[in-house]
Amino acid sequence: MTVTRARLSKALRCYLVTDPGVESVERTVEICRQSIDGGVTAIQLRAKGWPDRRALEAALALRALCAKAGVLFLVNDRVDLALASDADGVHLGVEDLPVEVARRLLGEEAIIGYSPEGERDRAEALRHGADYLGVGPVYATATKADAGPALGVERFTEIVRSVDVPVIGIGGLKPDNARAVRDAGAAGFAVVSAIFYADDPAAAARAFNEVWQ
Amino acid sequence: MSAVPRLHLVGPLGITRPVDYLGIATRAAAGGCDAIHLRVREMAGGDLLRLARSLQRELDAHPDVMLIINDRVDVALLCNADGVQLGERSFDVDDARRLTGDRLLIGRSIHDVDGARRAAEVGADYLLAGHIYDTPSKEGQPGRGLEWLAEVAGAVEIPVIAIGGITIDRLPDVLAAGAHGVALGRELLESADPYATSQRLRQTIDREVRP
């Protein structure tokens, strides 16, 4: 465990989600390494569709990389993968294992993030102990075809103000529109393509961080 | 650790709706299957856990029947399964063991003798070895045969469960080659009467395997 809950808000500032479409473990780790150089503060490994063996290989490499850099390391969906790689926690969605069930295996210390769908789902996740929320799409996005219509900054701001855990904004974020997410009171922002597929991930991460200052 | 089961049902393999599998599995368990596997591809964790728990409830009436979850160690632990089945693309046996301790039986699917030896060395509780006979699910890949099965069984100390094209008629030969037990998929899933078929398989095993 490299990141405690007390430091969670800070660790969520610049949050990179990996894309399983890049199938090479080596390439994935290299992009993450460069992104950390540029100031990424959290990494979530998404390995959906990957063989478990490859996912674990990537998780162990990212675990080591993040621990060294003091970066939060989370695993998407798979609690067993998080446990096997000693990740800081998991990020769950509506279709994944329920938050309280995941907590049973992960323990009190682990960080559990959740991407709610709608108000009731959000309230339930918080009641069951989600440590932070990923809320979006703030803007329209092509990365997740199933993400639904954009919330818009106004609605996003309302949601951030209505909960008492850190919120990260996700969906269609670029350096030039990320400031609105900060101004909404979010702890941070999550991106996939804007950093993961940038020609220079370090420079892309830096550009986001400058906006956030 | 409980003894390794001898008659495994592996499903649903996509040929039935998951919900239908509950019924087949329950009838197979009543007939004498002592291990029910849950192997589904690409099912979200929440759905898989619900399905596993439903299956576990159905199997409540048969406390000696083990529930074995494919791949997902987290789901296996959360539904209080008896085991987890790993393959070549899954976690390694030793990685899984760190999460399960002795709570779960760990089975490893193997397709060659070297793989069998390695799995045994890193602590698998049993092997699922196949496919033994030609089977429609492995079209174009001939069965590895009884000699191969005997070689695998001779190479390791842990129980070997034979899979692939197993039928009642073939069962005595498979057991004679050194298999501890057998696993059936389609052969049982497509049976008109999974209860009766399991019962006949069970009787043959009990007859062939002297205690």
Provide a descriptive summary of the structure in words.
The complex is a heterodimer of chains A (213) and B (211). Chain A is an alpha/beta fold and 213 residues long. Chain A starts with 7 loop residues before the first helix and ends with a helix. Chain A has helices at 8-11, 25-37, 52-69, 79-84, 99-106, 119-127, 153-162, 175-183, 193-196, 201-212; strands at 14-17, 42-45, 72-76, 89-93, 111-115, 132-135, 167-170, 188-191. Chain A contains ten helices and eight strands. In chain A, helix 8 (175-183) runs parallel beside helix 10 (201-212). Chain A has one domain: Alpha-Beta Barrel (TIM Barrel), CATH 3.20.20. Chain A is globular. Chain A has an eight-stranded parallel beta barrel, surrounded by seven helices. The two termini of chain B are 19 Å apart. Chain B has a single domain (7-208), classed as Alpha-Beta Barrel (TIM Barrel), CATH 3.20.20. In chain B, strand 2 (35-39), helix 2 and strand 3 form a beta-alpha-beta unit. Chain B is built from nine helices and eight strands. With 211 residues, chain B is an alpha/beta fold. In chain B, 51% of the residues are buried. Chain B has an eight-stranded parallel beta barrel with strand order 1-2-3-4-5-6-7-8, surrounded by six helices. Chain B has helices at 18-31, 45-58, 73-78, 93-100, 113-121, 145-155, 171-176, 186-189, 194-208, and strands spanning 7-12, 35-39, 66-70, 83-86, 105-110, 126-130, 160-163, 181-184. Classes of the chains: A alpha/beta (213), B alpha/beta (211). Chain A binds chain B through residues 49, 51-54, 56, 77-80, 83-84, 94-98, 101-102, 104-105, and chain B through 42, 44-47, 49, 71-75, 77-78, 88-92, 95-96, 98-99.
